[in-house]
Design brief:
Blueprint (H helix, E strand, L loop, with lengths): L3 E9 L4 H11 L3 E10 L4 E9 L5 H11 L6 E6 L5 E6 L4 H11 L6 E7 L5 H7 L3 E3 L7 H14 L4 E4 L8 H5 L5 E5 L11 H8 L3 E8 L9 E8 L6 H24 L3 E4 L2 E4 L2
Parallel strand pairs: 5-6, 5-8, 6-7, 8-9
Antiparallel strand pairs: 1-3, 1-4, 2-3, 9-10, 10-11, 12-13
Helix pairs in contact: 3-8
């Protein structure tokens, strides 16, 4: 794999932004591999993602030059390099299909990350974690132990220098204090096409409502339940012939795909979040 850098930018929209950024990269000898941009005309915002080869490129010099340019254009920006593998913690409860999918994709190289630990409030995933060689931590949660449980989770997350948390059908609500420590670094999969059927038992409510489409949604976690910026959604058609068990079975396929896509796009630095929306670059 080539050694690359990725620059992500958001700022007020104005003329000449693409030329300023690409010109500075060209002046520093960059061989640009991918470049994409988006304008939100209603919000007056500009978004850009540029990826280029690092062979022979003076990254430190470019960072210094760009750090001087960015404030003059009111830019929020970050620079990522492909050699760095983010560390991902996976939280799961009793349903393991999303965890299985993530662990397989990590082992096959599809997800460029390390998974140093798995958390669960049930012992169901312990054998799977052992098979993939990932440390498993059983943290039981009850109303009167929730604060202590989260404190232990946060301690281990800090100890293992975790960059991203993935809730792979983790059926517990994280506290606002927990979420605030990882802004746009917690990805959840919800088993409905949000904003429909937020909260618990969405398949049951979809079945009772007689819907003709069911879906799954991956989103960043915010303090408001199932209301964070949406990253990916997928749907499939159902009919009056489908029973509740059929909806659940079909939905699990959607959940796996929606979650793995969202995680991969985050790891590939393709997502910019603003307000309660995201820009996901191709």
């Amino acid at each position: 794999m080539s050694h690359t850098a990725t620059l992500l930018i958001d700022c007020p929209d104005q003329k000449g932004l693409i030329a300023r950024v690409s010109g500075m990269l060209y002046a520093n000898g960059a061989n640009i591999l991918h470049a994409d941009q988006h304008q939100d005309h209603e919000a007056g915002l500009f978004f850009m993602r540029v990826e280029w080869e690092l062979n022979g490129f003076e990254l430190t010099t470019f960072q210094e030059e760009f750090s001087r340019l960015a404030p003059t254009l009111e830019m929020h920006w970050r620079l990522e390099v492909s050699s760095f593998k983010p560390r991902v913690a996976v939280f799961v409860s009793q349903y393991l299909h999303c965890l299985i999918d993530l662990l397989y994709r990590r082992q096959s190289g599809e997800l460029s990350c390390e998974i140093p630990l798995i958390f669960s409030n049930h012992d169901t995933a312990s054998a799977l974690a052992e098979f993939y060689g990932v440390p498993f931590h059983l943290v039981s949660i009850a109303p009167d132990t929730k604060a202590a449980a989260e404190a232990e989770q946060l301690r281990l997350l800090a100890e293992h220098k975790v960059d991203l948390i993935v809730l792979a059908r983790y059926m517990q609500i994280l506290s606002p204090e927990f979420v605030a420590l990882y802004p746009n670094r917690i990805i959840n999969v919800h088993h409905s096409f949000l904003p429909a059927f937020i909260g618990a038992r969405p398949y049951h409510r979809a079945f009772e409502r007689g819907v003709k489409l069911i879906g799954a949604t991956s989103h960043y976690v915010s303090e408001v339940l199932d209301d964070g910026p949406i990253i990916e959604q997928d749907v499939t058609r159902v009919s009056h012939r489908d029973q509740l068990e059929d909806l659940i079975e079909k939905g699990r396929d959607l959940e796996r795909v929606a979650l793995s896509r969202a995680v991969r796009w985050h790891l590939d630095h393709r997502i910019l979040s603003y307000g309660n929306k995201t820009v996901v670059f191709d």
